[in-house]
Amino acid sequence: MIQTLKFIYLHPFNEGRRFKAILDFLIWQIKSRIWNKYYLYQFTESSKLMVKSGMTGATGNIYTGLHEFADMGVFRFIFYEK
User: Could you tell me the pTM of the whole model?
Assistant: First the structure.
């Protein structure tokens, strides 16, 4: 759990919102254990993310905005360059 909190705290997208990101993590951990169901999260302006406890990559996006920052940043650069 300490490693996860460190990852969330140091993630580039959480700069300026580190406390909120940690709070999101704690809320998700409590909520997903009490009610084991799917939740719908606004991911971008035009997309939503349906997540459930155990979906590590998807829940990482809830905490950080973009779980695999370096990999997806390259993807975005290659495919969405304007």
Answer: 0.68
Both tokens assigned to 78: 């290659």
CA distance 14 to 21: 7
**CA atoms within 13 A of residue 78's CA, in its CB half-sphere:** 6
* Alpha carbon 6 to its chain's center: 14
What are the pLDDT digits (tens) for 26-50?
Answer: 998 898 889 989 988 887 778 888 9
Q: Other C-beta atoms within 10 Å of 47: how many?
A: 8
For the segment 47-64, what is each residue's pLDDT rounded down to a tens digit?
888 988 888 777 777 777
- Per-residue CA distances from 38 to 33, 59, 76 (Å): 12, 11, 28
Any residues with CB less than 8 A from the CB of 11 and at least 6 apart, and which? 21, 63, 64, 65, 69
